[in-house]
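Our consortium's second objective concerns turning raw sequence data into structural hypotheses that experimental partners can test. To show how far this objective has progressed, the report includes one record in full. It was chosen at random from the queue rather than selected for favorable results. The single chain below, 421 residues long, was entered without modification.
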Amino acid sequence: MTATVDETHRSIDAVWRIESARLIAGLTRMVHDVGLAEELAQDALVAALEQWPESGVPRNPGAWLMAISKRRAIDRFRRQEVLERKHTEIARDLETQPSATEFDAALEDHIEDDLLRLMFISCHPVLSTEARVALTLKLLGGLKTGEIARAFLISEATVAQRIVRAKRALADAKVPFEVPERAELPARLDSVLEAIYLVFNEGYSATAGDDWMRPELCAEALRLGRILAGLMPDESEVHGLVALMEIQASRTAARTNAAGEPVLLLEQNRAQWDHILIRRGLTALDRAESFGPRRKYTLQAALAACHARARTADDTDWERIAGLYEELAALEPSPIIELNRAVALSMAHGPAAGLAVVDQLVDLPSMKSYHLLPSVRGDLLFKLGRYDDACTEFEKAAELTRNERERAFLLDRARQSREQH
């Protein structure tokens, strides 16, 4: 039976998600320009959209796309031959590359290195955090500009502008297509891990909009993290981040009720947690901890593991959690870490112990617009029977959040406080 045009387009979308990262990575190695590589890959995608509905999806779609991309690159460089001798040399190199039918075998020695190099380019410190995230999703995730815009609730024009500026910044900085030298690796790897975790966090707790979560972003971050763990198996923090994301993602089904409203961690039905993801996360955590001293992602994964290992909320080892937060704060001091430590202390030693820590954070400028501070403070005040004060804090938190589900939840907590009074 002949596939319909719609079916072929869906097949092309699926092929693009699978093949685009390695296609762009391979082209970047060949043409030495990530912006041009993406442009050539997009040209090949347009050719697929034009030809595949009639000819059908080829047996090896990745090789087909690469062959078209290389042909376009050769044509482009030949047109510029008089102006740029370097491009002539690259075109000659491209012509000696394998034919489409030999593509997979020839690329076998390069694909992992190419993907790793592309990750380090997409997350280069010369780029802003927003640009790194957008470029990572575009080049490595195969997401369209509109999909990225919808995920972060910003305009397509804003996303497109970030991507254009990012590619221009990489070109201006003459960023080489290579894995950083050993001395540069820790800082550069941190940049990659941060970008992946930012994508995951936006999916796990959406900062704005009507949805509490955006699972598709969590899934994309997890996919990228797993790829990175395969490419850099001896880097503890890579496994630490994967462990953290696996365990956090395991709670997805339990984090909202049938109406889509948030369900707090201690009230979640743990039977709904994905125990396959938990086992994967605990395995990754063991791998991360086997390398020596724990760093921030591994410590956060250890915190998540405390909840994952507790059969019920009452079984949670809050003393250990408070100790882990103390260890994390010593490594990377932060008022947000202190706020989380306060929650753990309140669970281990009562709400007054937690409130004493929270009250020290109230006047910090960096926490003035952080909605979780009044949210936590409201919860502690509620537990202490100070219902008027709790109501005030919940209302303040509701004003600060940009997520509509969270705002409704906080206003409901404020209502409960008023009713108690």
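The partners drew two points from this record. The first strand starts at residue 208 and ends at 209. Residues 99-109 have pLDDT under 50 and may be disordered. Both points have been shared with the crystallography group to help prioritize constructs.
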